[in-house]
Amino acid sequence: MMTLFTLGIIALIYLILKRNFTQWQRLGFPTDHPFQTTIKLGLKEKPFGLIMADIYARCREKLVGTYIFMKPVLLVKDTELLRQILTSDFANFHDRGIYVDEQNDPLSANLGSLKGSSWRTLRTKLTPSFTSGKLKAMFGTIDAVGDRLINHLQERLKDGQSHCLEIKNLLTTYTIDVIGSVIFGLNVDSFKYPDNEFRDLSDRIFNTEKSSVLIKFRTLMVFIYPPIVKLLTRLGLEDPVLCRLRDIMKETIEFREQNGVVRRDLLQLLIQLRNTGKITDDNDTNWSIETTADNLKAMSIDVIAANAFLFYIAGSETTSAATAFTLYDLAMNPKVLLKLQTEIDDILQKHGLKAQGSLTYDAIQDMKYLDLCVKETTRKYPGLPFLNRECTQDYHIPRSDLTIPKGTPIFISLWGMHRDPELFPDPLDYKPERFTETNYNPMAYMPFGEGPRHCIAQRMGVMNAKIALVKILANFNIEEMPRKEVEFVFHSAPVLVPKEGLRIKMSKRMSMK
What we know:
Elements: H1 2-20, H2 23-27, H3 36-42, H4 48-58, E1 63-68, E2 71-76, H5 79-86, H6 116-126, H7 132-156, E3 163-166, H8 167-182, H9 197-206, H10 213-224, H11 226-234, H12 240-259, H13 266-276, H14 301-331, H15 334-350, H16 361-365, H17 368-380, E4 386-390, E5 395-396, E6 403-404, E7 409-413, H18 414-418, H19 458-475, E8 476-478, E9 488-489, E10 497-498, E11 503-508
Parallel strand pairs: 2-7
Antiparallel strand pairs: 1-2, 3-11, 4-7, 5-6, 8-11, 9-10
Helix pairs in contact: 7-8, 7-19, 8-14, 10-11, 12-14, 14-17, 14-19, 15-17
């Protein structure tokens, strides 16, 4: 009797698994191996973003059904369809499908994870924080951090000789200080004080060796299988780094409000939004704010901290990577390097600026070839290697007999798409000029996303990268090196982390042209 019962249970489990793992065949979609993605993740064979890129490269079909653990997911390769998903048919795909629990875990309620009307309301409120006028006002704060970067390099290269430097870590320090200053309102100097708490918190986010196994697993599941994160949170597992950043944010806000401190940074705008329900327009040069009773606050400290953390995560790693990868590829492309340095020298001279002096917003905007270089870097090395959406209602794919079921996670492999030779000829070559030509598919270029949910802080991130690049290239030489493609280490966060860092040889420039 027991044997029959056991066989019945085994047969039932088999039928359930078979039905689950044949969903895409039953719906008529092309499929990938049902267990390959899960096996590679389990073995930590590759970062998740590169696993998606492998599926993109391996499968010729424009839509590919696969599975992550028990969850059926759909990889979209067709550029026209994915543009529809992100823009014109956004109503069917307005959520990212990542973990969020507004009621029980307000620290998860950031702009990247919120759904539906909650997302739209917050997006509307935060958008005025990133206008040209606001970025101009914050420019000086960022430029001052750039000066600390240059002073640090001047000291390390003071003997006039060429030195091999690991630039990824160096530029992570720069972006962390920018974010610490602009978003968290802190006077952080990680070049002078590398062991400060704020830098340590960043290391704990991106250095998996400093996190427990459960925290690593939780981080990975935020994007891949949100119900597991919700369960872990209900069981009391919180991200200690996020909790500490919330405390720092609370202390800083209370200090500013009690002492009338006003700074031209993003935190000041968030305090303004918290106390008044809106952010003033660019014509209003008064950044000071009126405090109001706690029961009338438009935003909680937790919500401010959640979004500050999002900007921290999205900004620190992607900006430092964009800057470091640009320098890395310039070292392998001396003609591009010379052209860019010549433009920088010329524009600085045109605006009456010195290599070791302060920059201006207008001078940066005037550097057109620099803009092409940053575009090429973010094509070849998109900060996030994939985009994800969730189908929020059954969606019939135009000009086909296929329907995407409600609740299906949608993935777009930016890494695979940006390196597809049919979309970008010679994709591994570093060619900034490709963006002035017509032999690439502009619909396939979307390093910051596309549509209503594109990266809200895109212009700030690009500006931060450009400031660092201009200051470095105006003051230092980069030696030519042989071509070597970057390898990446497995990481629980969605960003890609170079396996051995990024090393280039640098020396001081004697003078500008």
